[in-house]
Amino acid sequence: MAAPQAIEVLLRPAVELYTVAVCAAAALVCVAAPWALALNPLLGLGAALAFGGFGALRFRDAWVILRYRRNMRRLPRYSMTSRQVPVSRQRLFIGRGFRWDQRHTHRLMQTYRPEFRRYVEPTALQRAARQLEARLEFAPAPFSSLAKLLSWDSPLNPVRPLPPVGGIPRLHGIEPHETDVTLPLGERVGHSLVVGTTRVGKTRLAELFITQDIRRRDRAGQHEVVIAIDPKGDADLLKRMYCEARRAGRDGEFYVFHLGWPDISARYNAVGRFGRISEVASRIAGQLSGEGNSAAFREFAWRFVNIVARALVELGQRPDYLLIQRHVVNIDALFIEYAQHFFAKSEPKAWDVIVQIESRLNDRNIPRNMVGREKRVVALEQYLSQVRVYDPVLDGLRSAVRYDRTYFDKIVASLLPLLEKLTTGKTAQLLAPNYSDLDDPRPIFDWMQIIRKRAVVYVGLDALSDAEVAAAVGNSMFSDLVSVAGHIYKHGIDDGLPGAVSGSRVPINLHADEFNELIGDEFIPLINKGGGAGLQATAYTQTLSDIEARIGNRAKAGQVIGNFNNLFMLRVRETATAELLTRQLPKVDIYATSILSGATDTSDPHGDTAFTSNTVDRISSTSVPLIEPAHVVALPKGQCFALIEGGTLWKVRMPMPAPDPDDAMPEDLQALAAAMRQRYADASGWWEAAGAASVPDATLPADLVDAPTKTANRGPGHTP
């Protein structure tokens, strides 16, 4: 006969306290009146110790029940200052939690049974206190003080309100024994995906990860590269990154690039560095629509930008958005300039013939397709048709000027609006920097330079003001990173430097907040192949539908999601997103007890027994999913399910940030952070309302504040 299955029931009265009370009373009698038990004082003291020891054991058992019941309604507060965040060379700290298994599913299912409802729902006294608070909101002074007293967040208040984090605390309260949850750093190369709806803690989790990445050193004492791309602009994230870089002694390697604040931003040429010249055209034309009839126009735009970029490189000019936009609008000038450069080297006397042809041109002998072109362009075209000189760049430019001017303007119509957005106003100074302007204090950076310096970069794309420009710049940055990663994979980061070691790499931590605003075809090779170059991406988004809507293709969206080996699922509102986690988990058996009783009349009228009765305790098992999508939807703020290390499920709660008194920023970055808070909606209010403070505003000591002239010279985008 099989042994009976033990059913764990922790939601029950703490009956062990009765034993504790009896033991305490018996111990008191043994000490105060041992004669009442026929004991002498010495034996009475020994008996009191025995009762006390047994009572302590039973109180420990009772405390397990009491703590479990308390956690069903309210979890202990968990906060941590930046200095307290543990930093390891082997593991990434996530928070505190436990590994979820069948026991926790069983306990969670018990909380939904009617007989246990009183242990998991707010008490009647708490509900009455909340109703009274609502009624006294606009009451006169004596009664409003009562409302404040009822809402006092202190353990001394028996009816204090629950923390404003929403969800159901029982999801984490079912396990009273928490441990530090960490991820091996070797797993980060497989990339991580953080999913959660608005205002549930994604950016705060990003701060926790970025803090460790900034402060981490390898065995040789070298830091890691940290790149944070923030489309919306979170002032607290910028402030945390600077403060952590300052604490780690890396403020001289801290760069700020922000499209919304070009006056104090570093400068970046998204198309100025490339492995192959064709990458310039791919980064620009890749921002154009490729659906339906637009595909043909995008291909032509790619070809045309490639022609312009090749000509610029041959002329010794670094491509940028401004130069490309200028020559897209007026290809004739580039054709003439390149022809002068080419014939000066190959055939200096050609210009005499071209000038003679130009002098004979008039409105009647200019070909119809060349109407509207400069006469020198027409003369160059006629000369090249006679001498048949072969040069791939010259031939490309020649094919471009052959188009009818009106037709040409139509087929580049999709390209011009994009270039106009990227080269309008002060944005052009950031994306098309003037390398020869030595009076501009704003530094110019590229990704290879950032990686070699092991720098920290904050990228604010100002997507709330102009989403299209933000997406274009973000995708260009991703394309540039893919190119740099390919170069590092083949040659290492020190290629071309004296004493370079082939294949040398450094961890590159890329954090892409709201990455559904940035994702495109460029992001797929980044996560597919970037791991070989040491690039480890952590992407933050709200739903899977955001990714699919951005890419426009479900198969490509699945391709992107399939490349993330680590999944952190915060509260979501879309069932399909929650199923990304729940469908990867097995089913488990949970047990339930039921009491069956019955009575049967006897069939013998002359017997001594009128009826028989029986009572049976039946244990049944039911197969259920490890967690349901409804559980993901009901997560409190600041908590998540983590599927890491090859499918291991952990339930984690992240530490809320506690104030650090010594945080300070330069005046220009303080002004930027303050303006960002006013201009953008801040998503950090959920934990501030719980009584915690953000990283506080502070100013530098007087002896560290730069004079106005010194501030202008140091370059606000780069904090030395």
Biggest pleated sheet: 12 strands, mixed
The CATH architecture classification of the largest domain is 3-Layer(aba) Sandwich
Q: Write out the CATH superfamily name of the largest domain.
A: P-loop containing nucleotide triphosphate hydrolases
Q: Quaternary state, please? A: single chain
Kindly report the CATH topology of the largest domain: Rossmann fold
Question: How many domains make up the coordinates?
Answer: 3
- Specify the CATH class of the largest domain: Alpha Beta
- Helix percentage: 40-55%
Strand order of the largest sheet: 3-2-16-15-12-4-11-10-5-9-6-18
Give the overall average pLDDT.
Answer: 85
Describe this structure in words.
- This protein is of the alpha/beta class and 720 residues long.
- The protein folds into three domains: 16-73; 185-269 and 435-590 and 629-720, 3-Layer(aba) Sandwich (Rossmann fold), CATH 3.40.50.300; 272-432, no CATH class.
- A hairpin with a 3-residue loop joins strand 15 (639-644) and strand 16 (648-653).
- Helix 10 runs antiparallel to helix 21.
- The termini are far apart.
- Mean pLDDT is 85; it is low at 681-716.
Q: What tags apply to this protein structure?
A:
29 helices; 720 residues; 12-stranded mixed beta sheet; alpha/beta; Rossmann fold
